[in-house]
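Whiteboard transcription, Tuesday session. T.W. wrote the structure tokens on the left side:
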């Protein structure tokens, strides 16, 4: 049972397993089906065990994690989950078609050669071919990280929900810093169409460049996003969803990032265009965190990107 597990800091260092996976192996969630604990994962059951409330009216303070030596082991995972939630909430997770993991910082994926036209064929004649081969170039994964300066004395009296919001904000900004690699992957070797100025007609021309794949996402700089949203066609026929997402009249979601140049409009199909590659989850110095040595919290993640389907991406360059 979850209240009989002995928590040790060595659970963060098991080969091939995260802390949460180590907990799940010892306390499988499948054992709690049709019980009051069925909606909790193994980590959340440990929070319940030590009566640590991370949200709500009676939310605890950071120091509650350190009431016992065992409950202190849960603190690094609280930090990781808060940071990762912010990282995943950024636009990054919504624009990747696939996610891969590798054991090193160099990744060689497969390459699809799909240039032969899709046509009818007759009996006795060979059918058109598509080929999947090993890629001739590798994706180098880059390290993105942040040092969070925060002593235990500074945060011990902080409510956990407020501290989690701060960490989510850091995670979101860390994800935004990764967007430069996303833009590079989408635009490299992508032939651009050009226009002297950005108009709604040029946006529809970009939309018309797509054949097999719908353009369901448009990525632009903040300045260009404001310019597009001010267009009369957008004011008359654009759609803003209940969660704040903006859609162009022809159905593509409008996203903005400071990583995109003001003269570049990237249209793509988010279900086919981009692969995210990681070699690790968020990395932190767990021993220091468990021992309340919080003068600085180092957090990092290694990731890279590559274009999966070239004809699922088109670029419009503004020359004026």
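and on the right, the sequence the group agreed on:
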């Amino acid at each position: 049972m979850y209240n009989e597990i002995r928590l040790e800091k060595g659970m963060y260092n098991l080969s091939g397993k995260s802390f949460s996976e180590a907990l799940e192996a010892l306390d499988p969630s499948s054992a709690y089906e049709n019980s009051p604990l069925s909606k909790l994962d193994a980590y959340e059951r440990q929070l319940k065990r030590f009566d640590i409330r991370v949200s709500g009216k009676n939310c605890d303070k950071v120091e509650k994690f350190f009431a016992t030596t065992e409950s202190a082991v849960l603190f690094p995972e609280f930090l990781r989950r808060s940071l990762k939630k912010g990282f995943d909430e950024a636009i990054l997770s919504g624009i990747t078609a696939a996610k891969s993991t590798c054991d090193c910082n160099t990744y060689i994926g497969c390459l699809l050669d799909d240039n032969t036209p899709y046509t009818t064929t007759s009996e006795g004649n060979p059918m058109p071919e598509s080929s999947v081969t090993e890629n001739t170039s590798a994706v180098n994964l880059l390290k993105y990280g942040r040092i969070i300066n925060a002593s235990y004395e500074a945060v011990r009296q902080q409510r956990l929900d407020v501290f989690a919001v701060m960490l989510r904000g850091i995670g979101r900004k860390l994800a935004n810093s990764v967007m430069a690699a996303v833009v590079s992957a989408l635009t490299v070797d992508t032939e651009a169409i050009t226009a002297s100025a950005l108009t709604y007609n040029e946006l529809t021309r970009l939309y018309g460049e797509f054949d097999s794949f719908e353009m369901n996402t448009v990525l632009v700089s903040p300045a260009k996003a404001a310019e597009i949203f001010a267009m009369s066609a957008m004011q008359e026929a654009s759609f803003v969803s209940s969660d704040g997402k903006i859609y162009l009249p022809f159905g593509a979601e409008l996203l903005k990032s400071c990583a995109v140049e003001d003269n570049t409009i990237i249209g793509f199909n988010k279900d086919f265009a981009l692969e995210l590659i990681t070699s690790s989850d968020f990395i932190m110095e767990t021993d220091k965190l468990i021992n309340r040595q919080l003068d600085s919290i180092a957090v990092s993640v290694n990731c890279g990107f590559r274009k999966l389907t070239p004809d699922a991406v088109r670029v419009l360059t503004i020359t004026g």
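Someone added at the bottom: The mean pLDDT is 91.
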